[in-house]
UniProtKB/TrEMBL annotation:
This is Exostosin GT47 domain-containing protein. Residues 148-431 form the Exostosin GT47 domain. The keyword Transmembrane helix applies. InterPro entries: Exostosin, Exostosin_GT47. It is found in: Golgi apparatus membrane. Keywords: Glycosyltransferase, Golgi apparatus, Membrane, Signal-anchor, Transferase, Transmembrane, Transmembrane helix. Belongs to the glycosyltransferase 47 family. Its main location: Golgi. It is a single-pass type II membrane protein. One of its GO terms (cellular component) is Golgi membrane. PANTHER family: EXOSTOSIN HEPARAN SULFATE GLYCOSYLTRANSFERASE -RELATED, OS04G0109900 PROTEIN. The chain crosses the membrane at residues 6-29.
Amino acid sequence: MESYYRYSVSAFILLCLCVFTIPVVFLNYDHFNPFMNLSNPTLESPGPKFELQRLIVSTSDQIRAVSTSGSTDDHQHLNRNTTLIRETKKLSKEQVLEQGLARARASIRSAAIARIVRTAFFMNDNDVPVGDVYRNPSTFYQSYVEMERRFKVYVYSEGELPIVHDGPCKNLYTIEGRFIHEMEHGAKRFRTNDPQRAHVYFMPFSVAWMVKYIYTPLSFDITPLKHFVSDYVKVISIKYPFWNRTHGADHFMLACHDWGPHASQGNSLLYNNSIRVLCNANISEGFNPQKDVSPPEISLIGGYLSHKLIHPPPPNTSRPYFAFFAGGLHGPIRPYLLQHWKGRDNDMQVYEYLPKNKDYYSYMLESKFCLCPSGYEVASPRIVEAIYSGCVPVILSDNYVLPFSDVLQWEAFSVQVETTKIPRLKEILSAIPEEKYRKLQEGVIVVRRHFMLNRPPKRFDVFHMILHSIWVRRINARPNSNRS
Ligand SMILES: *[C@@H]1O[C@H](CO)[C@@H](O)[C@H](O)[C@H]1NC(C)=O
Ligand SMILES: *[C@@H]1O[C@H](CO)[C@@H](O)[C@H](O)[C@H]1NC(C)=O
Ligand SMILES: *[C@@H]1O[C@H](CO)[C@@H](O)[C@H](O)[C@H]1NC(C)=O
Ligand SMILES: *[C@@H]1O[C@H](CO)[C@@H](O)[C@H](O)[C@H]1NC(C)=O
Ligand SMILES: *[C@@H]1O[C@H](CO)[C@@H](O)[C@H](O)[C@H]1NC(C)=O
């Protein structure tokens, strides 16, 4: 709750134009890689749904033999075989959707198998993800391309300003506003006005604005937020058939405010089934990496990214400071860090308050390692700021699911140190060989584009990465539902 004070505490952030910055977290990622499920999807309740999936897969294989484009449009490309045309027309929109998803899964699966060949083949596309920073660059690429080809989101129009259809764009919770605006007014490619053709349904409310407009300051009473969410779900589930059809499993919400997880408790199906895109991706607070998405926290005070971070120095620029941190004492980890390192060692530039003549971003640009401890909540905008600065982030966090760790291999561009080892921090970082450090830093430069907020969005940037994480969860999801 205290994180509400972050507005004042994080004065170090002067980003511009709602454009960049983020925090991260991670934990034990090995148990989770959504792509791994593709070859062997886990079904919560195998049964009629599974049979339907199988049917769809085989039907789609037939159609694929005729259709060269892989398009889900059932009226094109089939002129050569009228039997197939008739068959296809009989499919409901929903079946067509599922069929498209089945094709996407198949193509991603084959990319996973043929990774080397594919990666080489894809070299024609300048955006192709390559290298160690990805868990599997070719599956990622294939799944990204499938998303571009097919993914459709329906955005509910219910609800009124300011809490719905808008969100902050100039503070720590910038992602809320930028994502909602992009979904509502941009991103035409990924949007559909026909809810029958949608793969997922977006509930465009802002938890940060709930806190601003319906929360009583200092009351620490979050029930108004829960009620809002509960009412919202009630409205859409009465008016449309989609919520009941999957018990919310193909619906998503996005919240960067720390209270996002609490607000989502307003409806138990939303909490348990829906895709919750939450900056506060704290495993001990119910974040479920199988279905929830961890976006980065990007702080844009004033709405802009600092010009200092727009063009970071080239990789070999000298960085006089070994490690850097400045920030308030909130949460359990930071006092420990400051206790051990503040004013102790010239190599460890650790401050509660920055010296007057120094500025935050210059420090990051001149440091080799940027320390990113959790505050009250797991996410921290420092992680993204470090990435923007070309500074290797050192993640000091428990229970944090790092952003996009479904596709990114955080070990290749960051260092994670157990919080209990903070007293040995310098020793641990010093033991990293120069060669290894250079690789980490190169990795930081490579992943930078995935954390950038652009207006309009660019391929593979943070907006598309968030969408991709949602897409991946949708294609793995086989909502064990009432869908017929
Ligand atoms: C059309 O497709 C059906 C089903 O696959 C097949 O039996 C039939 O021979 C095809 N007809 C033509 C003209 O290719
Ligand atoms: C969905 O289920 C709820 C609760 O069971 C019910 O009140 C509502 O009318 C249903 N919605 C539709 C569209 O049938
Ligand atoms: C989620 O499901 C569990 C188990 O079914 C249930 O005990 C819990 O109350 C649900 N969570 C919420 C927030 O409703
Ligand atoms: C950085 O320096 C190293 C060693 O001095 C050199 O091998 C490498 O090519 C340089 N990289 C760049 C991008 O200049
Ligand atoms: C994460 O959740 C746990 C359980 O609610 C809580 O104790 C912890 O303070 C939260 N935040 C962080 C930064 O770990």
